[in-house]
Amino acid sequence: MCTVGDLLTERAVLGVIATLAVLGLFVMLCRARRVSTSVEDAVMDMLDRMSKASSDLRAGLTQEAADKATPHLREMLRCVAVAITDEEGTVLSWDGGANDHYEYLRDTVARAINNCHKEHVDHRKLGCELQGPCSLHSVVVVPLVVEGDVAGTLIVVSGVASKRQIRMAEETARFVSTQLELEVVQKQRQALAQAEVKALRAQISPHFVYNALNTISSLIRTDPSHARELLQEFAEFTRYSFRTDGLFTTLADELTNIHRYLTIEQARYGSRLNVRLRIAPEVLQVVLPFLVLQPLVENAVRHGLAKKPGGGMLTITAEDNGNEALISVEDDGVGMDPDRLDDIKDAHQTGAHVGIGNINDRMRTVFGAEYALVVETAPNAGTKVILKVPKFARNVLPNLNIGSQMTDEPMTAEQPVVRA
Q1: For residue 401, is pLDDT > 70?
Q2: Which letter does DSSP use for residue 86 in this model?
Q3: Which residues cross the membrane (predicted)?
Q4: Domains recognised in the chain with CATH numbers
């Protein structure tokens, strides 16, 4: 089964191929023109232009993105003008001269869109009424195809007609299409991440909500003050866990929510649940996917310590490791057979651990395969789950609105959580 991660990798490869194709043709064009600058300088300039154009196009085919990209594309092609239209042929951006000639190109653009095929016309067939020399000698209109559909067109206006210029226009259109496809895949990836978070919430909530409400209700008569405190903790926990915006959070906010969870669980388990924290303050602002730690803590409590006679110790560690933060959740509970974790991506489907496969997939998708979970366990030897989180990653930003609403101080340094 092909995943969004596989699609992203495939599209990235296509993007590299398209980039190399454009670059190769550009070098040929430079040599044919015998430009005064060196080929090496031209290649460096080309790469710079392509990098800037690609970042603009990743925002999608909008007027703003087209306005930013067309100047770079025109410099790449060394042509009179470059324009980008939408799927209906409406010009989003035109950079360069001869923009008054678009009226003569409407039929050509319409044919390119309807037939999904490039169109090439020269000045003689345009019906241009300009008296004297015209800067427009040749026009190539290439459809921009995104996932099988025409999303718009690339118009390249040249002062000379040549097969190289036509080929360059085709390869540049392929490059633009690839960038637009990557933008589509990124949106699909974000939608998948949102779905995974919703699935994780659905998996966790029945277990904890039922037990938490039972614990609180049992204290209403015997210790109403404590019951009110736990109810407030429960309300804050659910508000954070079921928030609808943001895919990422800070370690500080995640730990604050874990503190709420453990406060309620300690009211339930009493002296059977002991917690030790070893948190380095310098990693508190590290950004990680939303709800990746709390499920691991819940696993340790439910499957490790609750099943051990007399309970045991839960240890949460977060330490600085250069460009990464090393985070671990460890219990000295009943443990499990390591063979059950051979295929960790399916572990959550067996019910062995709440959401562990989901968390593993999210870590790999966001940060790369090298950031998969590491699980150490054995029967009667406890379980330890280790996460590596890079301190900086592209497009990984916390949801600041949620963080600003938190009033609890995150737990830091080495300290025990006081038992209820």
Answers
A1: no
A2: E
A3: 12-30
A4: 56-196 (3.30.450.40), 246-390 (3.30.565.10)
Distance CA(217)–CA(215), nearest Å, equals: 6
How many residues does this entry show for the chain? Answer: 420
Q: Which of 12-26, 207-221, 238-252, 367-381 has the lowest mean pLDDT?
A: 12-26
Asked whether the beta carbons of 339 and 350 are under 8 A apart, the reply is no
Residue 409 has pLDDT above 80, yes or no: no
Handedness of CA 339, 344, 345, 351 (dihedral sign): positive
Q: Are 189 and 4 in contact (CB under 8 A)?
A: yes
Statement: the pTM of the whole predicted model exceeds 0.85 = no
Q: Looking at the DSSP assignment, which residues form a beta bridge with residue 120?
A: 140
Quick one: pLDDT at residue 35? 45
Q: Which of 25-39, 112-126, 347-361 has the lowest mean pLDDT?
A: 25-39
Burial 227-237 (b: 16+ CB within 10 A, else e): bebbbebbebb
Q: Kind and range of the H or E element at 324?
A: strand 324-331
Q: What whole-number distance in Å separates Cα of residue 390 and Cα of residue 8?
A: 20
Do 262 and 300 meet the contact criterion of CB atoms below 8 Å apart?
A: no
Q: How distant, in Å, are the alpha carbons of 222, 298, 320, 323, 412 from that of 278?
A: 34, 18, 11, 19, 7
